[in-house]
Amino acid sequence: MKIKIAGIGSYIPEKKISNTDFGEHVFLNEDGTAFGYPNEVVINKFKGITGIEHRRYAEDHLNSSDLAFFAAQKAIKNAGIDPETIDYIIFAHNFGDVKYGTSQSDMLPSLATRVKHKLQIKNPKCVAYDILFGCPGWIEGVLQANAFIKSGMAKRCLVIGSETLSRVVDAHDRDSMIYSDGAGASIIEASDDDTGLLAYESATYANDEANYLFFGKSYNPDLDPDIRYIKMYGRKIYEFALNHVPAAMKSCLDKSGLGIDDVKKILIHQANEKMDEAIIQRFYKLYDRTVPKDIMPMSIHELGNSSVATVPTLFDLLIRGKIENQEIHKGDVMIFASVGAGMNINAFIYRY
User: Fold this and answer.
1) How far is it, in rounded angstroms, from Cα 322 to Cα 254?
2) What confidence score (pLDDT) does residue 194 get?
């Protein structure tokens, strides 16, 4: 038995934030000192490395669970199913609902329960729960749905990735320009043909790597040190990803029994354009191959890094023909892969 993505949907917020909108920000070093160069230089360097020119922020009155609900509605409609037939709602996020203008995370009740409530699902045997797995959360949710379905515990699952990272960033940290908001949702069910999930990999590195992403105080020493924001050791994450993600992808592909030339698209977490390009180059080098043209669709230039939402949103945009010079065809083999806080890595091979 295999499982497939029977329906997909995403919600991309309307509020578009350009790099130029950060022109008046007071960016500081970790020790609170000012940069020795203007913001224009900071922004140009940032774009050159990450590829990000715009990102989306959630409307002020909406929370992460709202974005997830909108994406879930689209996925259910795309799959053409009755929501009462969903056995599990698996909601991947990292920070819960954070109301605009506040810093407190709200996860009671679970965001999955909130989505079930908004969808008005009456069936009590539809079990709703959240997972915290960093940016790879949506992929991990798909792998959990795979286990539920193969074990006979479920026939159909709704897997969601949603986040409002714009509400947990330190405005004085230039890394704040990376993050964005959004949601992606998918209906997962058994496949009765040769399409679907063929192999997977998942791992957590929690020794030296555990705190590469963490919650820390603002770089502005005048702000309350007890209010925390998302922080990261960018160079360490970059090196970790390059050292581990290509190998995980290769292990996954080898387990599927397919070859590198069978792969038509690689959908990788949209965190940093240069990092993603380097990961793909190292992956193909493991097979003594050069990277094929247009193998890696990208959304980061316009949407930024929306954490757990990037991969399902990317897939939704791809199959709807919304990514320039990119298309997918029935029977094409794809690799889905992600890396993030934990440090966690996962991937799966999928025949569309």
Assistant:
1) 31
2) 87
